[in-house]
Design brief:
The structure holds two protein chains of two kinds. In chain A, about 40% of the residues lie in helices and about 15% in strands. By secondary structure, chain A is of the alpha/beta class. Chain A has a five-stranded mixed beta sheet. By secondary structure, chain B is α/β, with parallel strands linked by helices. In chain B, helix 13 crosses helix 14, helix 25 packs parallel to helix 39 and helix 30 packs parallel to helix 35. The longest helix of chain B is centred in the middle third of the chain and has 21 residues. The chains are: A alpha/beta, B alpha/beta.
Chain lengths: ~600, ~1250
């Protein structure tokens, strides 16, 4: 079998080959970093015959902090990953590595450290194969799990395997997938649906997008297996319209799969029929909530309704509907092929397998990581993520997006496990992990996430619609230095009430970022209110701008930038800022070349 | 699509615990449904409507369910076995209160107008202004009296706190509220409206002091049934009203009448009895055994100036004593110069009175400037006009006298310093600026004190606590003093203040005393919650930007030179038109749903504090684009009831949500105005709205709010006979809503909801008219009947009875139809009796008589609810019977198929592919084609084949030529569609077929006959829940037909006619046909074109003013009861009886029950059959029976040229259409 990609050990010789391959990471992250231009430059320079090279593309490799990534598999069988490749660097790579076989060590990305703690199940193909190539997917056992299910297993046996594996819903709530399938299968209504929830909406989360872009067939295969298991003949992928690349690749994959006969009528020549349609969501965060998602697919405004009845009893158009997240479904083929025990070998007793995280924020090595459950937060942040960019210890990790919470550094040894994370007040969530250092203001973080949920509330429930607005107003007031003593009491009380009295997950979890920061960082709130001070120097209303006379060279750039004319000083002599007139726009901070302006 | 299987129907009840009680309930019910059905508690909810699917958004209905960490919304949570529910706990109440507080923190709306709020007595200012604007002065006066028993007094002397707060100030000047009140008190019915009987409570109350506070308290206590005795120190009642306010402001005749009305409630009065002199409080309680006492002893002592010489110099008297003496002993003779000290109303009153007592020069000395004067500016102005001089910024220092006789007053000039506690700038003496004012009389009017010496002789236990400001100490929420059972109010409790404050005290005390007397509690009443826009900050200018500026009316006054010669009234009162103009200036700021708003009700119940969660508030412009519906997003709480009602019940989706988060808003798509949406103005959204966000724009031009009484009634616009509730404020002022009693609620359309109120409005005929000298003039009933009989009899004599006709729109009750027949056949002997409109429409129809014995509906409108398919043939219910269209849309939503054979693209066929878009007049041929197909395919119902009724072959033969290509060619309908219809008819679907008997455009030869026979041969007529509905244009067309007044009319032969509620002259073509008609008597609601040509016009009563029986198009027998009295005093039945009498043929009986018995006798039914059917809302007993022996008949294959004659001959419809079209512009 052709093994390639960053899964192998770098530098190790896999196979001797006459052809060398150049693989460019063209996930959204790669494209955003200029991957297409790099690709085009390679295409321009490489002569098909003379260079004997094949140009390929793949999805997100996971090392998003070093994009654009280019992997070279040369004739010697060496695998080299170059990071931060620009079209200019392409010239040298072609000239020296591809034509002369000389590795450009200064640009090589050291992946060992990053990958050592990772375990790739969901991301097994991401960054390894061309997502547009069904052959490459099949070459890596693609659709063999479906074949195995259809030819050798009853639907009940499929469900048994999934149940035995302990797989839990990766969308956030962690409901056992096997149980959900069993409930759907048990429904009396013969018309059933399977829905892939690809409405990834958490700020800072991009796991699902990467999987859809990098390995769309694994999701389709997972859906088909699920459909076979529960007895559905129709499926929908509900994907955000803001993921155009994912939509494009999914469409392409559906076409390929249908042509191949692994989707559509009489799949693999058997009596099983399963059609998949794509439904693009218009970017409402709440549509990730399953009842709102159903309403949206049905063509109504995405507003949640009360559960029960759960979608597995009454979902799309009143029929039993099983909704699984992208990551959950991508796990399914692997489990079926490798067995429940192989899956259970990873993780803890209650949380088996792996979890993909989008590591973001003030972390040195941000990107997509897949780790076995049961690893600690510290390991993820410090060992995989390489600690903070500043090098100082991290302050907190925000997990679970707007529904989640902030876990302080002193709880860094918390295991990544559904129950343990919930105990901290945060949640596993869909996998957003935002690392914060001491330059992050926790009140500001709470304000940011609450502002997000407030804007994304569907407006149905009183507490969620108006309650979060009132909480947000209080936070804005605190950040603006107008906090009142009883504000914290109101925040906590209102937060608890919103949690207790909202219909859907969005409302029930919306106060979490506020409540967890209140719980772990109360003194920071108090500093804002009582001392009118923002310890992280983020809330501009509470900081003063100050010019360090030691550093200032009197260049006058800041004077020109200041609209409020708050900066004065003789030329070539240290300047000063009049705090009374200063509007705290921070423009001086950005123009100063001496790093002389500080917040205090 | 495979139908969704319903959960296994379990017959076992669910057992659960609610508030500790074991409860058994039906499976599938929600907690809310169980709690409501079994009356276990009152769970509040705003977003729940039992007619809609559970939703769960307001979170008012939260309850606790054991095992759930969260609170659970009861409206969406289904019960389970073993569930343990708690519906009331601290946590629950807190959550509900918080939900309300959050909703109200974003509720940019006013419950009440600011004038109403400013009135200490809480008089419904907006309500009485709107009643007055519409000319309902009696009701306006009653409304004022609910809170203020002295409207005549206040109409003249009130300080008008309402006007100070009036929102109109932001536009131009405040509304002249008090002018309007005075007009109402001058023109309303003087009698006090008493509750039918006042049940005596056996409790006795003493009221000490007969001033405004005492009188008010006495008034409301007496209305509650307590025995009240007023003890008054002075010889007559009235207190300061009599002894402090001069007669030129408050004429004594009016005052005496007003006091008399209060005493008329049975109040005992003892005058000349002074507390502390003649009796003590202890006497009242111990000796006289009064159960409660109200102290309203006032503040009768004039304040002293506190300067030397004040006490012993002749010519110095307090303004108060001066005014009091005048009343006790008659006007004193004054002369020379008079100085009055002070700037309040008493000082002005004393000054103006002094002028009237002969003073040559009157000067007011006031220590601040004019701006700070507490007296009403209009009073100051009036005094100046009369010649009173103002000396401002002076304060008296000393009395100047010679030989004990006043010669003048020494004053010092003042300058204004910093503001004091009252907010007014403090006057400071200017050193060395002394000035002398020579005068012969000095009247200090600088304030008043309570006479607390009266309590000095009380024993300790009955001595009430006295406050530091030397008044009786009271709890302001109940006016209770420190002594149990003793209450106090008026100036004695508050210090000197306005009459309206005293009235407010009296009323508040009466309420608290009533509660004390009945339950022993002294707590004050819970005040209803009030949402106020100004609580959210200054009002934005755009709120008033569109209001046109209109100057305030000026109060006409007597000439100043004349009026100072006597004590006659100075202000003369507005004219009616002035009052109307002034009332129109009212902007109706208060919410017109204030009395029905659930949000307000719960906010009161849960005692919310709006300020708890203040923050940003959404401020929207009110959508006034729609002529009948007002959409105010400021008041919307996003419960979505309107959105869901419009989508799920009406079948449209005019309203929807847009935006997300806090800024989510409900409205038509794309933020368009409601008028530009697809709204059909059925008003169902208004009905379901729990706040005032959606309100009806009442056709009266004013919106209220009014309290109304609800009467069940029937809509009389189309033939469906929808039930409705009529809300009657007073005659001529009413509106309709869907009935409240049924769970379904019932649908209404534009006409039922808005037309019902409209036809009682301004244009109604209220007096009979006769033609005199070529013009119609008002007359009395006797005269009118006499003339009417003359006109008709003369015509009969001259032209013969065969030239005489009675034309009537079948919109009367069955009983009135019967009387009409008597009048026509017996009394007049008229040759023709029928509806001109129906004749023009080609009716009456008898197409099915030979098949079924009658041409009538064979199923009920409710059958649509269970139908699998609705077939429309030549009918457009959304235009003619909109409520039926709603039922059809609902059926379509749940999966029923809609098929139609129509020539135009009617609204209901949207979304169906079974629209047979036939050329006009070809429906009969299409149906024949379908019959042929059914025969050919052998799809004839088995039972028909077995019984083989006669004529079947004839039918088959008659359609033999209707081959499909031919039919498709003639009708223009694709053959596949016609075949599709045939296929469905051959199936076992449950089909309801709708045909409009009165539609002239779609009609074609033998279409109805073909339709009926097609349904017969396919077996769709004899199963329950199937059949056809024959729609009619008039509400009682079926009744009229049965009673026998639905003949064809031959217009060319009519020379004289009695026309009832029809308007043939409204259409030039018809008028042409009736060219010989010259002797015309009209009975109608409004002055139609026909009425304008009549010799005599007799006002008709509307259905809501009538009693009797109606037969809907599906022949349901419905009773209608009178909701409002007839506008002209007589019901239509009475008019018909009186006319018959006048013609010499009394109807025998005017008793409706006897008339019904007579109808039954003529139809060969048991005498009480009709009564019984009415009670049970049954179907007409002789409803056509499809099981009787059948005789098929051939069909003529002929396409028909259409007669596009759609003029609505019923005058009410035409009137309504015109009015509705013209609405939305300026109020009348």
């Amino acid at each position: 079998m052709h093994r390639s990609g960053i899964h192998g050990r770098p530098g190790e010789s896999v196979t001797e080959s006459a052809v060398q391959e150049v693989v460019i990471g063209l996930g959204s992250c790669g494209i955003a970093a200029g991957g297409q231009r790099v690709y085009d430059r390679f295409a321009e320079l490489l002569h098909p015959d003379r260079d004997n090279s094949v140009l390929k593309q793949t999805g997100c490799i996971g090392l998003c902090y070093r994009e654009v990534l280019v992997e070279v598999r040369d004739r010697q069988g060496r695998r080299t990953v170059y990071g931060e490749v620009s079209p200019e660097r392409v010239d040298r790579i072609v000239a020296e590595h591809l034509r002369q076989g000389r590795v450009l060590d200064e640009w090589v990305v050291e992946t060992r450290e990053v990958l050592a703690r990772q375990q790739r199940i969901v991301l097994r193909n991401c960054g390894a194969i061309d997502p547009a190539s069904l052959e490459e997917y099949r070459a890596r056992d693609g659709y063999r799990a479906l074949e195995k299910a259809l030819t050798g297993m009853t639907p009940g046996e499929v469900i048994d395997v999934i149940a035995a594996s302990g797989l839990r819903g990766r969308g956030g709530a962690g409901f056992p997938t096997g149980t959900k399938w069993r409930l759907a299968r048990a429904a009396k209504d013969p018309q059933r649906y399977i829905v892939c929830n690809a409405d990834e909406g958490d700020p800072g989360a991009f796991m699902d997008r990467s999987v859809l872009e990098g390995d769309p067939h694994s999701v389709l295969e997972g859906m088909a297996i699920a459909a076979y298991a529960i007895g559905a003949n129709r499926g929908y992928v509900y994907v955000r319209a803001e993921y155009p690349e994912a939509v494009r690749r999914l469409r392409h994959a559906i076409d390929q799969a249908t042509r191949l006969g692994v989707l559509g009528t009489r799949i693999l020549g058997r009596g099983f029929t399963f059609h998949v349609a794509l439904k693009e969501g218009a970017g409402a965060f709440v549509c990730g909530e399953e009842t709102a998602l159903i309403a949206s697919i049905e063509g109504r405004r995405g507003m949640p309704r009360v559960r029960p009845p759960y979608p597995v009893e009454s979902g799309l158009w009143g029929h039993p509907t099983c909704i699984n997240n992208v990551e959950t479904l991508a796990n399914v083929p692997w489990i079926l092929l490798n067995g429940a025990d192989a899956f259970k070998a990873y993780g803890t007793a209650a949380s088996t397998g792996t979890k993909v995280f989008a590591l973001a924020g003030k972390v040195r090595r941000g990107g997509l990581v897949e780790v076995p459950m049961g690893i600690t937060i510290n390991e993820v942040v410090n060992e995989i993520g390489g600690g903070t960019i500043s090098g100082r210890p991290f302050k907190a990790v925000q997990m679970g997006g707007p529904s989640g919470g902030c876990i302080p550094a002193w709880l860094g040894n918390t295991l990544i496990d559904y129950e343990q994370l919930t105990a901290t007040g945060a949640i596993m969530g869909s996998g957003g992990m935002v690392v914060m250092d001491e330059s992050t203001c926790m009140v500001d973080v709470a304000r940011f996430f609450l502002g997000f949920t407030q804007n994304e509330s569907c407006g149905k429930c009183t507490f969620c619609r108006i309650g979060t607005k009132r909480m947000l107003e209080i936070l804005e007031r605190i950040c603006a230095g107008r906090g009142k003593n009883d504000d914290l009491g109101v925040l906590a009380e209102l937060g608890e009430q919103i949690k207790a009295s909202s219909l859907c997950g969005l409302g029930q979890t919306a106060p979490n970022p506020v409540l967890t920061t209140l719980r772990y960082f109360l003194e920071e709130y108090q500093a804002h209110i009582a001392a009118k001070r923002c310890p992280a120097k983020v809330c501009l209303a509470l900081v003063e701008f100050w010019i360090d006379p030691e550093k200032c060279n009197g260049c006058g750039l800041c004077v020109a930038a200041c609209d409020a004319s708050a900066i004065s000083g003789e030329k070539k002599l240290p300047h000063r800022i009049d705090t009374g007139t200063c509007q705290r726009c921070a423009r001086c901070l950005t123009v100063c070349r001496q790093d002389a302006i500080e917040k205090r | 699509m495979v139908p969704c299987p319903v959960a296994e129907p379990s017959t076992l009840p669910v057992e659960l615990t609610i508030n500790g009680h074991q409860v058994a309930a039906r499976p599938g019910q929600t907690i809310l449904e169980v709690v409501r059905a079994q009356q276990l508690d009152e769970i509040p909810t705003l977003c729940h409507d039992p007619r809609l699917q559970p939703y769960g958004s307001c979170f008012l209905c939260v309850v606790e369910v054991r095992g759930s960490p969260r609170l659970v919304p009861a409206c969406v949570t289904r019960i389970r076995d073993g569930m343990e529910v708690t519906t009331r706990s601290e946590r629950i109440l807190h959550a509900r209160r918080t939900a309300l507080e959050l909703l109200l923190s974003d509720h940019y709306a006013d419950c009440l107008c600011s004038g109403h709020l400013a009135c200490p007595a809480g008089v419904d200012v907006q309500g009485y202004i709107s009643l007055a604007r519409l000319g309902h002065y009696d009701e306006a006066l009653d409304l004022i009296r609910e809170r203020n028993p002295l409207p005549v007094v206040c109409g003249r002397v009130c300080v008008r706190k309402c006007e100070i707060q009036c929102r109109r100030r932001a536009v131009d000047e405040p509304v002249g509220i008090n002018f309007i009140k005075r007009y109402i008190s001058d023109h309303g019915d003087g009698r006090q409206t008493r509750p039918g009987t006042i049940v005596s409570t056996g409790k006795r109350v003493a009221i000490v002091g007969g001033g405004p506070a005492g009188l008010t308290c006495a008034n409301y206590l007496a209305l509650k049934g307590h025995a009240v005795t007023i003890l008054e120190a002075l010889p007559r009642l009235g207190g300061m009203l009599r002894y402090g306010i001069p007669a030129y402001r408050l004429p004594r005749g009016e005052l005496d009448e007003e006091i008399g009305r209060i005493l008329g409630l049975g109040i005992a009065v003892e005058t000349g009895k002074k507390l502390g002199r003649d009796f003590t409080l202890a006497d009242l309680i111990r000796r006289d055994r009064f159960d409660a006492v109200f102290l309203a002893v006032g503040a009768p002592l004039g304040k002293k100036l506190g300067i030397p010489g004040e006490e012993d110099v002749a010519g110095v008297q307090s303004a108060l004593d001066f005014l009091g003496d005048l009343e006790l002993h008659g006007p004193p003779r004054l002369h020379g110069r008079v100085a009055v000290v002070g700037g309040g109303n008493s000082a002005i009153d004393a000054a103006r009175t002094a002028l009237r007592c002969g003073a040559e020069q009157v000067t007011i000395l006031y220590r601040r400037t004019r701006q700070e004067m507490p007296a009403h500016p209009e009073e100051v102005e009036a005094a100046e006009k009369e010649g009173v001089r103002l000396e401002l910024l002076v304060a008296p220092l000393a009395i100047l006298s010679e030989h004990g006789r006043l010669t003048g007053v020494r004053c010092i000039r003042m300058a204004l310093g910093d503001p004091d506690a009252s907010g007014r700038r403090r006057p400071m003496p200017v050193p060395g600026s002394e000035v002398d004012y020579p005068c012969e009389f000095l009247l200090p009017g600088i304030g008043q004190d309570a006479d607390l010496a009266a309590f000095r002789c009380e024993p300790g236990e009955t001595r009430p606590a006295i406050s530091r400001s030397a008044t009786l100490e009271v709890d302001p929420s109940s006016m209770a003093t420190s002594l149990a059972g003793v209450f106090a109010g008026g100036d004695a409790a508050s210090g000197p203040s306005a009459v309206i404050d005293a009235i407010a005290h009296g009323r508040l005390a009466a309420e608290a005393m009533d509660r004390y007397l009945c339950s022993g509690e002294t707590k004050g009443p819970r005040t209803p919650f009030v949402s106020r826009r100004d609580a959210f900050g200054p009002l934005p200018d755009w709120l008033f930007g569109d209001v046109p500026r209109v100057a305030r009316q000026k109060m006409p006054q007597r000439d100043p030179r004349e009026r100072t010669k006597d004590f006659g009234p100075v202000e003369l009162g507005l004219s009616e038109s002035q009052m109307g103009d002034e009332a129109t200036r009212c902007m109706e700021c208060g919410c017109t749903s204030a009395f029905r708003c659930d949000l307000r009700r719960y906010a009161t119940e849960y005692q919310v504090e709006v300020a708890r969660y203040s923050g940003a508030v959404r401020r929207h412009r009110v959508d006034m684009s729609h002529p009948l519906i007002r959409l105010d997003p400021n008041k919307c709480i996003l419960c979505g009831r309107c959105v869901r009602t419009c989508a799920d019940l009406v079948g449209l989706s005019v309203l929807g949500f847009s935006g997300r988060g806090f800024i989510t808003v409900v409205g038509p798509a794309l933020g368009r105005p409601l008028a530009e949406s697809s709204c059909i103005a059925c008003g169902a959204c208004i009905e379901t709205c729990p706040t005032g966000a959606l309100e009806a724009r009442l056709p009266h031009g004013r919106q209220g709010p009014w309290k109304a009484t609800r009467h069940p009634s029937i809509c009389g616009f189309c033939s469906l006979g929808c039930r409705l509730d009529v809300h009657v404020v007073t005659h001529g002022l009413l509106w309709a809503t869907a009935p409240q009693d049924s769970a379904r609620g019932g649908d209404l359309c534009l006409k039922g909801r808005f037309g019902t109120g409209l036809i009682h409005g301004a244009d109604r005929l209220r007096r009979p008219l006769v033609r005199r000298n070529g013009r119609l003039v008002e007359t009395n009933w006797g005269n009118a009947f006499h003339r009417a009989a003359r006109v008709l009899l003369d015509c009969r004599t001259q032209a013969g009875s065969d030239r005489l006709a009675v034309l009537t729109a079948p919109r009367m009750t069955l009983e009135e139809c019967s009387l009409t027949r008597h009048l026509a056949r017996t009394a007049l002997g008229a040759a023709q009796v029928g509806s001109f409109g129906q004749t023009r429409r080609g009716g009456p129809r008898h197409d099915l008589d030979s098949l079924f014995g009658e041409t009538a509906s064979t199923c009920l409108r409710e059958d649509i609810d269970a139908a699998d398919m609705v077939l429309l043939v030549g009918a457009d219910p959304s235009a003619t019977h909109p409520v039926l269209a709603m039922a059809i849309r609902r059926a379509a939503k749940r999966g029923a198929e809609i098929a139609a054979i129509t020539s135009s693209k009617i609204d209901l066929i949207r979304g169906t592919d079974l629209w047979l878009d036939a050329r006009r007049g070809s429906a009969g041929i299409i149906l024949a084609g379908v019959i042929r197909l059914v025969f050919q395919r052998g799809q004839i119902d088995r039972r028909i084949l077995e019984s083989h009724p006669p004529g079947l072959e004839d039918l088959y033969r008659s359609v033999a030529d209707a081959v499909m290509d031919e039919v498709a060619g003639i009708s223009g309908v694709e053959a596949s569609k016609i075949e599709g219809l045939a296929e469905r008819l051959a199936s076992r679907r449950r089909i309801v077929t709708i045909y409009d008997l009165d539609d002239t455009i779609e009609r074609s030869t033998d279409d109805l006959s073909a339709l009926a026979q097609l349904l017969l041969v396919t077996g769709h007529l004899d199963r329950p829940g199937e059949g056809f509905l024959l729609l009619r244009a008039d509400c009682n067309a079926e009744g009229a037909k049965l009673v026998g007044i639905a003949d064809r009319i031959d217009p060319g032969r009519i020379q004289g006619a009695l026309v009832i509620s029809e308007n043939p002259f409204g259409d030039p073509g018809s008028r042409q046909q009736l060219q010989d008609l010259c002797s015309l008597v009209v009975i109608d609601h409004v002055l139609t074109e026909t009425a304008k040509a009549a010799e005599v016009v007799l006002p008709a009563a509307t259905l809501q003013e009538s009693e009797g029986t109606l037969l809907s198009c599906d022949r349901r027998v419905q009773e209608i009861r009178r909701a409002s009295r007839p506008a002209a005093g007589l019901s239509t039945a009475e008019v018909l009886c009186r006319l018959a009498e006048e013609l010499g043929h009394p109807a025998g009986t005017a008793d409706l029950a006897e008339i019904r018995a007579e109808i039954a006798r003529q139809l060969g039914l048991p005498p009480d059959r009709l009564e019984r059917a009415r009670d049970r809302r049954e179907i007409w007993p002789t409803r056509c029976d499809p099981s009787r022996p059948l005789h098929f008949r051939p069909i003529r294959l002929r396409s028909t040229a259409s007669a596009a004659d759609v003029y609505p001959y019923a005058s009410l419809d035409a009137y309504l259409d015109r009015r509705l079209a013209g609405m939305g512009s300026a109020p009348p």
